[in-house]
């Protein structure tokens, strides 16, 4: 599914030069590098250039300095991990937005990795997810409890919407409530294709008119939503309004590692124009709410 040269190119994108044995320590290194260097984004959908979600396309996307959302990111990461010798399983999952109910609707591709714990001589499962943008910095053991990662606290608990499933609760100060995962292993991405088509092409898709790019790092995260750049450093939030196209493109390239390599100058101009239009619409809505 992924060649040795593609593995090397993928690792190079992650800033990792060496292929190592499939240990827990290497898994953590890969995961942290992935969420740092490859952002989650709705940019391609917003720009009217959605990308296919098949594994080979997603791998090519990432090794050629692009990014994507959960189906691309977790799909490609699966291919890399399996090529490196890890046992990876897919799970149907669903993200719970603020103000809505928990769900497992297949709009998120969840991953678990099975690793041998040599101390107890048993296999252990880990929740691995590089496709959520501002969530785990490193893998979380599939054991219910509270997990502190830098300034963030996550809770893993039984899912209330499916038997034997699990729920990863987001840190309360961030962008959504949590994610529920089904326990059944999914062996094909066919299950997710209809949802990908909805996100990518339906006029009702929440991302058609919403550009969001998110990226984690060890002590915080960055989010670019339209013209608004939010920077979390620990518990400190700094918000800036980006007013020029050159600055906006520079932030995308330098902060989010997303230089829009397959977009022409004209296409970049059109994206920026749409961003500005949506930003003005948002400002008018805020003004109406205040009055």
Class of secondary structure makeup: alpha+beta
* Biggest sheet architecture: 8 strands, antiparallel
The spatial strand order of the largest sheet comes to 5-4-3-2-9-8-7-6
Question: What count of helical segments does DSSP give?
Answer: 8
> What's the number of extended β-strand segments?
13
Shape descriptor reads: globular
**Rounded to an integer, what's the Rg over CA atoms?**
19 Å
What would the average pLDDT be, to the nearest integer?
94
Q: Spans of 5+ residues with little confidence (pLDDT < 50)?
A: none
Q: H/E order of the elements?
A: HHEHHHEEEEEEEEHEEEEHH
Relative helix content: 25-40%
What is the end-to-end distance? 57 Å
User: How much of the sequence is in beta strands?
Assistant: 25-35%
3D structure, described in words:
With 291 residues, this protein is α+β, with helices and mostly antiparallel strands. The protein contains eight helices and 13 strands. The strands form two sheets. Strands 5-4-3-2-9-8-7-6 form an eight-stranded antiparallel beta sheet, with helices on one face. A five-stranded antiparallel beta sheet has the order 1-10-11-12-13. Helix 1 crosses helix 4 and helix 4 crosses helix 5. The chain is globular. The mean pLDDT is 94.
